[in-house]
Amino acid sequence: MPELPEVEWGRRLALATALGRRIERVKVAADPIVFAGLSPRRLARALEGATVIGAHRLGKYLWLELDRTPHVVLHLGMTGGLHTPTRRFLPLASGIKEPLTRWPPRFSKLQMIFGETLNRKIRGGDEGEEGDEGDEGDERDIGARHQLVLADARRLARVRLVDAPLEVPPLSRLGPDLLNERLSFAAFAERLFRRRGMVKGVLLDQAFLAGAGNWIADEVLYQSRLDPRRPVQTLSREETKRLYAKLYRVVSFAVSVQADKTRFPKSWLFHRRWGRVDGAVTSNGQAIEHIVVAGRSTAFVPSVQR
Q1: pLDDT(137) > 60
Q2: How far apart are CA 82 and CA 85, in angstroms?
Q3: How large is the C-alpha radius of gyration of the chain?
Q4: What confidence tens digit (pLDDT) does each residue in 21-76 have?
Q5: Which CATH number fits domain 185-300: 3.30.2090.10, 1.10.8.50, 3.90.960.10, 3.30.1490.20?
Q6: CA distance 149 to 83
Q7: In DSSP terms, which residues pair with 177 in a beta bridge?
Q8: CA–CA separation, 231 vs 235, rounded Å?
Q9: What's the average model confidence in pLDDT over 130-143?
């Protein structure tokens, strides 16, 4: 499943592609699962003619803010991604990057085609943010470059129309964002120790902190040297400090390299956690075991994580 770094990459791609542009045309696949009963006609009518004035993210959700309501909220599901004709596929950290060989890509669910930039109040990112292409290049190819597609082979992505995304579920139930709302150590510890259960389960709880998923939780616990089955109430102050530091470090680093797994440190468990391979070891030669924790497949290193 795309986790915070991958979804943030998608948000920045959307920002670079659509910010300040009018949605000229919308193509919607007839998929009642992805669109949760929202008809293609209703979605197209809601979006066509609106101007994108912001691109936002909270945890694993992102949404395009329009100059009128409703706004469009996206969740990428397990394998969904955002695409443009001139930018690579969303680099799912656990997946294989494939070249963009056809347009629109296979399994397209929602395609938005944008027009010229309009002079509207815009929101959603700092000026000069990484990934913002602006209006560089030949103006003749604007129609080709300024398109955004949501594609999803497994149909677990979701698209909704919402007037106030932060005020209604599911976004209203999420905890502080791991990238944009960093807690102090004291606030983190207080929030952590209000919870019961295994530490991995708490990290996966989006009401605790929004954005971590399975690979982030495994990586953070490995780097923190904590067994994923440890009850949170048994963590010492020093262990809690390690968990706090590694959690924010892993997320911020993955975002800084645009969720590109080839740029993750070679020492990360990430590179060796996939596939339940017998005899898998870390870069230091330590045995990796696979178990189920909090209902999720979990990779951990018993000789390190206590």
Answers
A1: no
A2: 11
A3: 20
A4: 999 999 999 999 999 989 999 999 999 999 999 999 999 999 999 999 999 999 99
A5: 1.10.8.50
A6: 5
A7: 210
A8: 7
A9: 36
- Residue range(s) in the chain whose domain bears CATH number 1.10.8.50: 185-300
Catalytic residue set: 2-3, 60
Specify the fold of 4-173.
N-terminal domain of MutM-like DNA repair proteins (3.20.190)
Task: Report the percentage of the chain scoring pLDDT > 90.
Answer: 79
pLDDT tens readout for residues 231-250: 999 999 999 999 999 999 99
Burial of 226 per CB tally in 10 Å (0-12, 13-18, 19+): buried
Quick one: tokens of 190?
A: 């207080």
- Which amino acid makes up residue 223? Q
Rounded-to-integer distance, Cα 138 and Cα 273, Å: 44
- Token pair 């390190």 in the structure block, residue: 304
